[in-house]
Each structure stands twice: as C-alpha cells, then as structure tokens.
Amino acid sequence: MRALYQITGDNEPANNGNTGLWYDKYCDKWPIINGAPEWSLKSYKAGNHEYHPKQEWIKTLAGKKVGNEKQLLEACQRIALFADRTMGINEPQFFNTQWRFVTGLGRNHPVENGFAWHHTLGTPYLPGSSVKGMVRAWAEHWLLNNVEDADSKEEKQAEIDRIFGSKGKGEVGNVIFLDALPRTPVKLEADIMTPHYAPYYSEGEAPADWHDPTPIPFLTVASDQTFQFLIVPRLPQDEQSRNDTEQAREWLKEALEWIGAGAKTAVGYGRMEEDKNAARSFKDEQRRERVAQEKQRQLESMDPFERELEELIQQQPAIPSYVVLLNHLKSGKWEGEDVIRVAEKIRKLMKEAKSWKEVSNAKRKERDKKYQRTREVLKFLKN
C-alpha cells in the first residue's frame, strides 16, 4: 500500500486527477509510533509538539479548486442537451453558494466526517435524490404547515404527492430532479465543529460546562461557487407535468434561499441564491452552439471547392476572411480557373466588408492596405 503513496511524490492530488478518489482512498497521515503505524487519526503529542492528522489531511485541499474546467462544462452541457432532446426542457437554474456548503458528512472516512464527491468528475455535487428531498421538505414542512384551511391543506398535499410521488404507494411523481453539478472548478475550505458535551452523547453523563470541547475538522465548499440545477417533466407532452415542473422550479429557488442544501443548514450552511450571470452565460453558449451548428449545415451543403475556402477561413477566425484567402492566393495555392473563382470570392467578401475601392480612386495612397489588396485582387482577375 505505501508504495502507492511514493508514486505521488509529495502526496498532492494531480490537477487533472479525480480529487474525490484521492481524498477518500489515499490518506497518508497515519502516525508512526515506536516504528509502527497507528491506524487512528486522533490528535497526539510527540515531545513538545501536538499533531492533528485529521486537520493536516483536510488542509491539503483547503483553499484549492478541484475539478477539470473543460470536463465540468461538458458534463453540464450534456445534461442540458439530454433534457432538451428527451424532455423538451433546456432551462437549467444556476445558484451561487452564499456561505459554506457541505454534503456527505455521514459517509465513512478516516477523518470522521465524510464528503460527497461525484464519482467521475471528482468534485462536490448534489445527487438528484438529495435535491428532490430538499425541495419536498420545503414544500411539506414550510408551505403545507402554513395552510390553515383543511380543504386547502388537502389540495396542497395532493399537489405535493402529484409532483414528488405518493409515499408508501409506489407512485412516481410528475417531475424528475437531475444531479446538481458545478459549472467551474470548486474552491474548498476547512472548517471545525466543536461539540462541548461528548460525555453526554457517548456515556450519558449530564451536560456540564467543565467538559472539554472536542474539535472535529471537516471539509466544505467555499462561498461564491455556482451549481447547475435542472428539473424536467416526466411526461413532456403532458401539460400538467410541465406545469408541475414550473412549480417545482419555484420551490427549488425558495428552498435554497431559505433552508439551504446539504448538511448543517440549521446554522446557515448550504444557502444559495440565483446566479443570473451564469444563466446569461449559458444562454450565450447555447446561442454560439446554434450558430456553429448552422454553419456546419451550410458547410455540408456547399460544393467541395466552396467548402475548402470556408474551412480555410474558419481556421483563422481572428483575421478578415478576404485577407485569409488573399494570402493563400498569393502563395500559389490554386491554379487555372480556381484562381479566378477565389479572386471573385475575395472581391465579394471585400464588398460585403466595405473594404473594396476601385483602382481609379486617385485619392487613395499606395501605402493604404485596403487599396493595395484591391489592386492585387484586380491583378489576378485581369491575368
């Protein structure tokens, strides 16, 4: 086992590796006492020094960002594309953490408190089942309990059962909750909880002020981290299912703002607010994707020679298209009739770009680049 740790050198997670797998499986803070490893991460003293293995392991990620930016963006885009093509919904909701956020504290881990990692992306996330449970808890314990009229309460309960499914009856709901994923690499922070009455919980002693607090470190997601949520109708063609989806989207926003997601929500963890900037960025991405798809369709409909010219232009998007073709034309890339076709194409592009001036325009100076390009194109056309 210990040979594996030697491979990683200073035991730091690789930039493109799965941080979750590394954090869960490669903890190497076991103390060596009398030449043998002590399989416990409890704090201990050695000489005049105190050592806290749990905190040391958590701090290896504190203040760092985890996750591959390209992979996270692709995963979010795939989920949105899946929802669009199969469910007819392509409107993810984006929420930004207002303070720390933690999920998976109940999982087993040597540091005592676990952490929920996405199994392939290696970043913190919220499973769809957790999102559904949070929204249902909001609807049942906050909205339903505020309804005083019996008939209205029964109607609200029927709506909740229709959206989430009936408990104990095996009936599924009209709405599907997908995993909430981060859009960009996630910054992590270390935190500590200090229960003061350990003997009360472990041995049944009366809680008292003379009991020593027990610091327990744990890992959290920092504030100002954006996650993508997506709720879709189970029956896209059913109007009721689509209406229920809109209701669930509203409840999701309220639940994240008021009660929060994950663990320790009673003390403010997990609160999130809608991120309108991320929503605008998503719409811009979708718009660019549609433009790229339209260009691809146009490219496929062109004849081979026109397609060749268009592909050359797309290879250098930062340079005006007529300049790209003129440079290739001057290099002798084409011969015969192809030269005339390219020159005509360049003249057309220059006119569209308002860069075309006749050679007879004496006011243009010889050193004017646009004027010189015009002369070069006319030269090819005359020859």
What's the helix and strand layout?
Layout: H1 2-7, H2 19-25, E1 32-33, E2 36-37, E3 44-46, E4 49-51, H3 53-59, E5 65-66, H4 69-87, E6 93-97, H5 128-143, H6 150-164, E7 165-166, E8 171-172, E9 175-177, E10 181-182, E11 186-193, H7 198-203, E12 216-221, E13 226-229, E14 231-233, H8 239-258, E15 272-274, H9 276-301, H10 304-315, H11 321-330, H12 337-352, H13 369-382
Antiparallel strand pairs: 1-2, 3-4, 5-11, 6-13, 6-15, 7-8, 9-14, 10-13, 11-12
General description of the model:
With 383 residues, the protein is an alpha+beta fold. It has 2 domains: 62-283, no CATH class; 303-382, no CATH class. Helix content is 45%, strand content 13%. It has 13 helices and 15 strands. The protein has helices at residues 2-7, 19-25, 53-59, 69-87, 128-143, 150-164, 198-203, 239-258, 276-301, 304-315, 321-330, 337-352, 369-382, and strands at residues 32-33, 36-37, 44-46, 49-51, 65-66, 93-97, 165-166, 171-172, 175-177, 181-182, 186-193, 216-221, 226-229, 231-233, 272-274. It has a 4-stranded antiparallel beta sheet, with helices on both faces. The chain has a 3-stranded antiparallel beta sheet with strand order 5-11-12, covered by helices on one side. It has a two-stranded antiparallel ribbon with strand order 1-2. A hairpin with a 4-residue loop joins strand 7 (165-166) and strand 8. Helix 12 (337-352) runs antiparallel to helix 13. It is flat and about 100 Å long.
